[in-house]
Structures are given as structure tokens and as C-alpha cells.
Amino acid sequence: MFDLLSSFCLPFWGRANGLVLCSILACVFAGIGNAFFHVGGGIDSLTRNYGKHWRPGTFISTGALGLSLGIYYGNNSELGLTFVHVLSMTIISAGGVWFFCKSPYDDSIIIHEKDSCLSLTRNCFSSRSFGFLLALLFVIFSRSLVGFLATEIWNVRHVPAFPGIALAFAAFAGKFLGGFGADLLNARLCGVLAIITPIPLLFLSSSLSMFWLGVLLLNSTTAITLTATARNCGKSVGFAFGLTTLALLAGFFVYDWIALLIERCDCLSSVTTVLIVVMIVSALAMAVSIKQER
User: Fold this and answer.
1) Burial of 197 (C-beta count, 10 Å sphere; 0-12/13-18/19+)
2) pLDDT at 102
3) Which of 1.20.1250.20, 3.40.50.1820, 3.40.630.30, 1.10.1040.50 is the CATH number of 116-289?
4) SS3 content of the chain, % helix, strand, coil (to 5)
5) Of 181, 224, 266, 285, which one has the greatest count of Cβ atoms within 10 A?
6) Mind listing the pLDDT tens digit for each residue in 82-106?
């Protein structure tokens, strides 16, 4: 709670006093607070999902939407978001966590059901799990890379570029609905189709609505990969959030390099072809690493 409050208070105090150091400290506090919240909330959503995907998907989707809205409002100061508004939302959120998340942590809670379940008391990482984990991290890395680069390619090929806030809502809807779809149908089938189907929507269609649908489908794999990553991390459930976040970050770094390459040379078609191949390999990795279950 201290980290979250400090991260919001320090930038406004620093702006008033002209201290750049406060903004740097705010970023540090925000990063620490965000990590603690993700690990705590992530463990709760994963350990109490009882073999289902909807709860982790709901947890991630709302955070992704909030992050996008926060960036949007931060870049548009004319919208009138003040220190009082931000501080009020932070206190309400912190109060909600304090009063409604009081149930004790129970090591006997089962993460997954039936024969494929793992208990929190089981040791971490077998060689088989490690192989599945690498495949899952590649799926997550490719989702990050494709998501960023598909947007970049669209903006180069089509004028005008679409608003980023609309893209954020499409990603939110995919992350939110993906877990429910995996629970109702089949996790492996939904995961593979959600990677293959967006290929023509993201790279071959000129329709903006089809592009948004592709973004939605691509992001619907989030809950599936997170739940499967936690399964292969044994009792280190919180570690699953750190690993998946690093894979997403790696995708962003590679995107940043390729985006610079696109600006300097005419290689858009080659990049598109590579991305399609990456998505096909990612679908195969998803099929191998996800158990055949409902």
C-alpha cells in the first residue's frame, strides 16, 4: 500500500518543487508496488481457481485496461485528471484489498483438479515441466512481439492510424473472455485457434474491425498460458507471474529493434512473413504444452 500511495504522491510533489528525483523515486516505488500486487493477487487468483481459467483472466484483463487508461490520461493532461482524483482511486483500491482480501493463505489449496493437478506442497520443476515451460514462454514472447509489430505494420500500411485506447479495449476483452472460453470448451483447442485465426485478420485484412477482432483473439490466450505456466512451476506459483512478465518484456525489446529496422529499410513484407511463421510455431508450442482438458 505504501508503494502504491508513494508512486502517485511523489510525481505531483516533485512537479510542484521542480525535483526530477521524485519522479525517478516514483517509478521505483510504482515498480515495486506493482510487482508485489501482481504476485499477491496472482497467487490468490491461481491458487483459488480450482482448475479454471476465468479467474486469472479476469485479474489480468482489468489490470491491462487500467494501465492503458492510466497512460492515456497521463498523456492527455487536458482531460482534467488531478492529484485528488488519482489519490482517491488509490485509497479506495488499497482499502478494498485491505478489507476484502483477508482470508489466510492455505498451502493445501489445489491449483488444478483431477489427475493433472499440482498442490502448493509439490516441489518445483521437473525436466518435463521445464520443457513445457520454455514452450509456454515462447508463446507469451511471440504474443507480445506480434501484438506490437502488427499494430506497427497496420499504422504503416493504413492512414490514419487507429486510436490506441480502442486497441486497449480489444486486448482487455480478449484477456477477459479467453478464460471463460477455455473453461467452456477446451483449453488446448481455444489456445491454438486463438493464435492461428488472427493471422489473416492482423496481416491480410484491410478492415479495422477485423484487426480489432484479431487483437482480441490473440490476447484470449493470456489466461491459458498463465494457468499452464503456474502448473509447470510447482509450488512456486508467484514465480509464474514473473516469468510471463519477463517474456512479455523480451517481446517488447525485440519489437523496438524491429520497428527501428522497418523505419530505416523497406522490409515490411519480410517482417510480416517472419511474424506469420512465428505465430505458426507458437501455435505448435501451445498444442504441445497445454494439456487436453476442459
Assistant:
1) middle
2) 59
3) 1.20.1250.20
4) 80, 0, 20
5) 224
6) 767 777 877 887 777 777 665 555 4
